[in-house]
Specification:
mainly alpha, binds zinc ion
Length: 78
């Protein structure tokens, strides 16, 4: 599961300062809609399923974080 936390690096790459009032879904490079769809595809392959699950959980948590802070599920620029 540690590997899936690598996507959090893009949080840092996009902006060195963590901003809780900004939605990361659709904002960071690896949190775009097409990447999330790609993670969904991973679920269909046994060997990489756990990576897909980890990434989807990560996106879900980011999204929930978004909703709690801003009342939206993803950044408008998806
Ligand atoms: Zn994230």
């Amino acid at each position: 599961m540690m590997l899936t936390m690598v996507v959090d690096i893009d949080h840092v790459v996009a902006d060195p300062i963590y901003d809780p009032n900004r939605c990361s879904i659709g904002f960071h490079p690896f949190h775009k809609l097409y990447f999330i769809l790609l993670y969904g595809v991973l679920l269909f392959f046994k060997r990489v399923r756990w990576i897909g699950v980890g990434l989807m959980v990560h996106m879900l948590l980011d999204s929930i974080d978004c909703y709690q802070n801003m009342g939206i599920w993803w950044h408008s620029a998806v």
